[in-house]
From TrEMBL:
<dbReference type="InterPro" id="IPR029017">
    <property type="entry name" value="Enolase-like_N"/>
</dbReference>
<dbReference type="InterPro" id="IPR046945">
    <property type="entry name" value="RHMD-like"/>
</dbReference>
<keyword id="KW-0479">Metal-binding</keyword>
<dbReference type="Pfam" id="PF13378">
    <property type="entry name" value="MR_MLE_C"/>
</dbReference>
<keyword id="KW-0460">Magnesium</keyword>
<dbReference type="InterPro" id="IPR029065">
    <property type="entry name" value="Enolase_C-like"/>
</dbReference>
<dbReference type="Pfam" id="PF02746">
    <property type="entry name" value="MR_MLE_N"/>
</dbReference>
<dbReference type="InterPro" id="IPR013342">
    <property type="entry name" value="Mandelate_racemase_C"/>
</dbReference>
<protein>
    <submittedName>
        <fullName>L-alanine-DL-glutamate epimerase-like enolase superfamily enzyme</fullName>
    </submittedName>
</protein>
<dbReference type="GO" id="GO:0016052">
    <property type="term" value="P:carbohydrate catabolic process"/>
</dbReference>
<dbReference type="GO" id="GO:0016836">
    <property type="term" value="F:hydro-lyase activity"/>
</dbReference>
<feature type="domain" description="Mandelate racemase/muconate lactonizing enzyme C-terminal">
    <location>
        <begin position="151"/>
        <end position="243"/>
    </location>
</feature>
<dbReference type="InterPro" id="IPR036849">
    <property type="entry name" value="Enolase-like_C_sf"/>
</dbReference>
<dbReference type="GO" id="GO:0000287">
    <property type="term" value="F:magnesium ion binding"/>
</dbReference>
<dbReference type="InterPro" id="IPR013341">
    <property type="entry name" value="Mandelate_racemase_N_dom"/>
</dbReference>
Length: 369
């Protein structure tokens, strides 16, 4: 094994290619911390995470001041041990978003390093369960768009081979219902329509809306309630035939355990950045498998394609391009399926010259022994 000798960090602030509006917010930027870890053999692993426009400097500071220095001298291959030690080191600030996002940037870099040294792609190293994963798109279903635009985009998605599309909900209920009906009529019954409320509803409103949404035969209702309202999700799940999807706003495997044990969801959308990295992501995915529940992760398609391919119960990857301006080639797509890279590591073709050009001033740091 080889010890960690250098930790480098920087942050890029990406602007969305399309206007993104949901029931609670508008996406104006995406802060992307990027971490590179070098071991004593000279091998390098690159990892990253993200925020929706705020909190990035706090993540960078936590890594630079606390987590990064604690990595120096550690055996790079001891990923589970390192993850647990770093979590304990930050026990006063966890469980929570800032700590999880910082841990994820480090953990994904360590997995990339390990896979590169093993000359294996991460999806094989982590399990090797599937060769391709079905894609659905979110890029054309934002809440501010009018019905005709959503219908047109969904038809294009179907014709491009996507198996489904997501629509944001949260307009007055009669508008949501009309929009869903129009899309269903346009695409027919062989195409999945997913909905996402972004935690906007109260329990009574979610129950009522779900009853009306059922007519469109939607694939799931995502984040209908605040993520910490497990009782509300239990009541909703028991009241509707629509699968309830949660996970992008959960930051601990134990939170997923509680949801699954109480039958409060039927789709797990664990986000590799928000759960704290690949190490806990795999635990959640395998936990969901024991409950016969599918995994359809939130965002980060360039990374989730490998993780979904590693486990047997992953069903969908969400198509939202994130890293185009930071990579030399994108994720491979074939007839509506995401194909994991066969290259060693995470399979992300970083363009480090482009990253250097887009680095936020003052965010760069290096820690070395």
């Amino acid at each position: 094994m080889a010890k960690i000798v250098r930790v480098e960090g920087l942050m890029v602030d990406l602007k969305p290619k399309v206007k993104r509006v949901d029931a609670i917010q508008s996406f104006v930027s995406q802060e992307t911390p990027i971490i590179r870890i070098t071991d004593s053999d000279g091998a390098v692993g690159t990892g990253y995470s993200y925020t929706i426009g705020t909190g990035g400097p706090a993540i960078m500071s936590l890594i630079e001041r606390t987590l990064g220095p604690a990595l120096i001298g550690r055996e790079a291959g001891m990923i589970e041990q390192i993850w647990r030690d770093l979590l304990f080191l930050t026990h006063a600030t966890s469980v929570g978003a800032i700590t999880s996002l910082a841990l994820a940037a480090i953990d994904t870099a360590l997995w990339d390093l390990k896979a590169r040294k093993a000359a294996l792609p991460v999806h094989i190293l982590a399990g090797g369960a599937q060769e391709k994963i079905r894609l659905y798109t979110t890029e054309g279903g934002w809440l501010h768009l009018d019905t005709s635009a959503i219908v047109e985009d969904t038809i294009r998605a179907r014709e491009s081979g996507f198996g489904g599309a997501k629509m944001k909900v949260g307009r007055p209920i009669h508008e949501d219902v009309a929009r869903l009906a129009a899309v269903r009529e346009a695409v027919g019954g062989g195409f999945e329509i997913f909905t996402d409320a972004n935690q906007a509803f109260s329990v009574d409103e979610a129950i009522r809306r779900a009853r009306h949404y059922e007519a469109a035969d939607i694939g799931w209702l995502e984040e209908p309630l605040t993520a910490d309202d497990i009782d509300g999700h239990v009541r909703l799940s028991a009241s509707t035939t629509i699968p309830v999807a949660v996970g992008e706003s959960l930051y601990s495997a134990l939170h997923f355990r509680d949801y699954l044990q109480r039958r409060a969801c039927s789709v797990v959308q664990v986000d590799v950045a928000r759960i704290g990295g690949i190490t806990p992501w795999l635990k959640v995915a395998h936990l969901a498998e024991t409950f016969n529940v599918v995994v359809c992760p939130h965002f980060l398609m360039e990374l989730h394609v490998a993780l979904c391919s590693a486990v047997p119960n992953a069903r969908w990857v969400e198509y939202i391009p994130q890293l185009d301006s930071l990579t030399t080639k994108g994720m491979t797509i074939d007839n509506g399926y995401a194909i994991p890279s066969q290259e060693a590591g995470l399979g992300i073709a970083w363009d480090f010259a482009a990253i250097d050009r887009q680095t936020v001033e003052g965010s760069r740091f290096t820690i070395a022994n």
